[in-house]
Records
---
Amino acid sequence: MRVVSLVPSLTEAVARTLPGALAGATDWCTHPAGLDVVRIGGTKNPQTERITSLAPDLVVANEEENRAPDLDALRAAGVEVLVTEIRTVPQALTELERVLTACGAPSRPRWLDEAEAAWPAVPSPPERRATAVVPIWRRPWTVLGRDTFAGDVLARLGVDHLHATHAERYPRVPVEELRAARPDVVVLPDEPYRFTADDGPEAFPGLPCALVDGRYLTWYGPSLAEAPRALGAALRAARR
């Protein structure tokens, strides 16, 4: 089985489970470390002709990460494309198993069992749940909105982001409005925008800011097993 992955988290899942199966991956596929495969461009601008030249048996993609015209072009070239849809943690676990089965995994990997066990083990959130705003970009400021995987991850850790009912999934909101909402915590991931201690917290004076690893917040793969512990610790530390 030759697989090309257009999604970083799916790349990690396939590489961990089926070493040698990946023929190509995007420039953004950073895990596992040292992954040595043909790079085929970005998630939003994959080089479809280069992908077809690799003669993959399967291309794995995601309805949010990848653009429909690119996937249609691959199908038109005779390439089989599996498209995932992931908005919640349970959905991620189900879709990961579907992807790995389609890629030829002979059995369910241990890391997937560990990820499935990690989330029910999360302690019940306190009676008063925390509120948050979650910027994912600046210039312009853009935050998590409705129906997102990252929002579901936070909700399972007792954190409700304030734009969860917004009409848009990733609304642009003026930073003045974000500050005025006075959330309990501002969650600043290092992707897709790379927020750092020197780039992000200064926009929210007087508000606790949690700098978090975006892989734990937005990736659905082996990182799901560690995400509850790692994110929980970062969120608690920010509010002390």
---
Amino acid sequence: MTEAPDPRRSAAPPAPTARQEVSSNRLFRATLLWSAGATAVLAVVGAVVGYAVAGTSGLWSALVAILLAAVFLGLTAGSILIANRWYGDPLWVPIFFGAVMGSWVVKFGLFIVALLVLRGQEWLNGPVFFVALVVSVLASLVIDVVVMLKLRVPHVGDVSLPTLADVEAAESRPDAGDGEPGADTGAPRA
């Protein structure tokens, strides 16, 4: 004897839900792309100016400073983009903060290691290194401001707001109220 299939139960597994895109991802991608372009331009200009000011040591000092700035500044945006892949997951918030805080710890460790390795190097020209680092950081800040002003991210872009049909459907359900006498039904009070 065979049983009739239950129409409420489907034989096929439910379709996987599409991964939601966080609205700020466009902003961080644009920041990384603009920063990569600015780093390339700064590397060429820094190498030429560094070589003109201090020879080969100036060239390498400028390139190392610009590369360090690019790595440090790209880690935060990159970690946010990676963490946003889990958006919609119940563990997204801990994953997000763990990734961002982890990238800051990595940046701090890299900064200490870079200082220890570069300290006392005879090929390093301190003034060229410092100026190239400051110019790189300032360029990154300008890029961040320009990207923030140019790209529009909605205030409620990652939230599904109810439509008029949703509100009307909720009001028409018999279980919409809590059933207690004197419960607020949304009518104005006299």
